[in-house]
Amino acid sequence: MKSFVYIITDRNRKNLHVGMCSDLLKTIKFYSEMPTLFFDSANQLNRLVYFEEINTEEQAMARFQQVSTFTRMQKEKMIRQVNTDWIDLTAGLNYESGIRVRPSVYGRPSIQPTRRAVAL
After folding, report:
1. Cβ atoms of 13 and 21 closer than 8 Å
2. How far is CA 85 from CA 2, 18, 28, 38, 50, in A?
3. What domain of life does the UniProt record list for this protein's source (predicted)?
4. How far apart are the first and last CA of the chain?
5. Residue 51 DSSP one-character state
6. 3-100: which CATH topology?
């Protein structure tokens, strides 16, 4: 089963929180639903700036423990290697998950040929 090791931060990049989960979108949604779980509202963790997808849970746990011991400078260097502008990666994840969802037959507009008036 795939697992993720991620780093999430607040809007000012003051706090870097390292975590591990099996469903990244669900975890990000949890952070948005519980904004003051770890910090007050000014330091709300809401920007996913780094994540790794790892194949096994044992490897993910080892990587999580390794990244958790990193200093702030090491974490920042790791983030900047893949996300130089520290943009929120959640939008890309939402987009990718939307591609995998099969569209509903009832939600699509019907395709009908357009009729043109014939000039005589």
Report:
1. no
2. 27, 19, 20, 24, 11
3. Bacteria
4. 68
5. E
6. GIY-YIG endonuclease (3.40.1440)
Task: Write the DSSP assignment of 25-37 as a string of letters.
Answer: HHHHHHHHHSTTS
Tokens coding 57: 């849970």
CA distance 43 to 34: 12
Structure tokens at 10: 């607040």
How many angstroms separate the Cα of 98 from the Cα of each of 6, 25, 33, 70, 95?
A: 21, 12, 20, 34, 5
Structure tokens at 67: 């990244």
Tokens (6 digits) for 118: 């014939």
pTM check: above 0.85: no
Tokens encoding 58: 């044992």
Q: CA-CA distance, 58 to 62, in Å (whole number)?
A: 6
